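Convert to structure. Protein one:
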Amino acid sequence: MTDDGAGGGRLVIRAPNHLGELILALPAIRHAASVEARAGRRMWVQVAAWLTPILELADLDVDILPLDDRRALRQAARQVAGTEAKRGILLTPSASSAIIFRLAGLRERRGTAGGMRTWLLTDPVPRGPLLEGHRVHEFLALVGGNTEGEPPAPRLHAPDGGSGPSRAAGDKMVGLFPGANGDSRRWPAGRFSALAGRLAASGRRVLVLGGPGEEGLTEIVAAAGSAAGECEDLGGRTSIRDLATVLAGCDALVTNDTGPMHLAAALGTAVVALEGPADVRQTRPLGPRVRLVGRFDLPCVPCVRNRCPRKGPGTELTKSYNECMWLIEVDEVERVVEELLDWGTR
């Protein structure tokens, strides 16, 4: 599939299914949309329905196909077929997405190769070489974009008309996101609680954020902050658009390796990313006010596992389990937060 779409016909892109991946795919989607626009065509993007606000906040000149149930393959294929698109690019490595494009009758289907999925594509791309750089470059390579130099940072604007938590003039507001999809990616709750207490005691307004099912965790962290100062628990209470509003209003966010980490960075909020098993070469958040905190010198980092596989004595600690996260100290994180907040006042 050429960069100028010489094969003709409208293009449909299948966006990634996860928040962080979608945000990292935005530069590629923007590039593809501009190429199509120059050819006089408007592009389609098929995306999980709950993620459509992200595309709207990116100000992309595309038509959106909201996907309510990505397991309903025939329904999703009929949705694509109804666009009369002829070409498709998959920015997700799932086999189901390739099946959807095949069922939809797209004559050109480009995506990363792997397993049975390879045979569903007309233009399979080996993924191995793409994993040597940042995920933004991987997505750009799939749409024929520039992969030289530093990867471009995704950009989103704050939702219009949104109302985040109120605060007095001059107050600094810090968000904390203590959850994560995998246990190995979570800084211990007690460390988040200690940080919440310190920040609140120093006069910072603290917001504790979390997704559905993380209310118990956010309640524990927020209780420590409330005991020391001003702290609010928003765990499980924000839609994706509400979360964007809150993050855009924060002066800084301290977060595990999560989708909201990338969302905050794209909104221009200062981010302190607590990194453990992730390969930061590939998935680090991008932006001028992003700071990575982690022990990247450990021999097991990155393992990219959601559950720590280590047992027995650690490299520095008595126990090796989740050592990469346990070695991140509250003092270090607090210092980085304060540096970013101070930078924001210059």
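Protein two, convert as well:
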Amino acid sequence: MAGIAPRFSRLTPEGLSEAQKPVVARLAKSVRNGLGGPFDIMLRSPDMANGMVELFEYYRFRTRLPARLKEFAILILAREWSAQFEWFAHRPAAEKAGLAAATIEALRLGKRPDAMPSDEAAVYDLAVSLIRDHEASDAVFDAARALLGEEQLVDLISMIGEYMKVALLLNAGRVGAPEGNELPLPPLGGGR
């Protein structure tokens, strides 16, 4: 996306419709990185955006999935989809949540991180299986369920799907890192 123009013009406060204004007000209370990235695109469909915000608030504030595993799953998805803005926005949250720097860097380079705790390994294997193969083997699924329990497992799977939607919006809209920042993800090898 370096050197490629975004496909959506940036919304301005003056240009917001009456349907967009309450969604913007809600977003302003809960997002970390302003209204750029996927939010600017989502606002083109205010009712859909409002539903996505509801889910984001659930994943951010109400899920019992630990923050470290939640942010790890989002980074896995961002890496697999080469969603530059998603990585840019969630890497600091992953670091703050306690995800090891070596794990983050291996993932950024498209490698399976070494020496992960068992819960991270289960999240990695499940997320990568779902993203690449669109399913998970019994062994991968059962390992994740044994470590997370069914409530957290369902939240994890749903969250992966929700952030996949974000990656689709970002990539279709050609949204990279915010202006003045380098793209954080190198291209993936092997046709991915």
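The chain is about 60% helix and 0% strand. The mean pLDDT is 92.
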